[in-house]
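Minutes, project check-in
Item: structure for the 155-residue chain
Input as provided by the requester:
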Amino acid sequence: MSEEEKQGISINFGLEAFEILEYIYDYEGPEHDIDLRELGFKLQFEHKADLEAGTFAIKFKVTAQIGKDNPLELGYISTRTIYSLSNMDELINDDGHFVLPKNLAITLLSIALSTTRGALVAKSEGNILSEAILPLADPKEMYEASPLKGELEIK
């Protein structure tokens, strides 16, 4: 199925669930020694499509770290955002692979990342991570560099 054919399919989606799978803050040094200007975040995500259930999930892991060459990890949050999608069977291409339309994939990534950002703020209350908001990331760039761009594995 070509990108033009996929654009003509009507897909409705809804947020089915959001889960904080794990939150770890394991920095044991004095927090006043941390320079927030050196704090960075590593973003990783994976996806899972389940045609039987009609769901598509994005799992994010956001790791807070200090330094560039040999970064010291301060902690991380891992979340899963599960969406219900209508007409998933119409997104199966001629080779039998699931292909998510680009604009839908970018929208789902954006929602999952912004929800994870909010969860990180809430969970980090009381430690140094609460003082550094996860910066905005362009979901279009994330999509272009991800496996969402091609044929997806389905359950």
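Outcome recorded: The chain has a mean pLDDT of 85.
No further action items on this chain.
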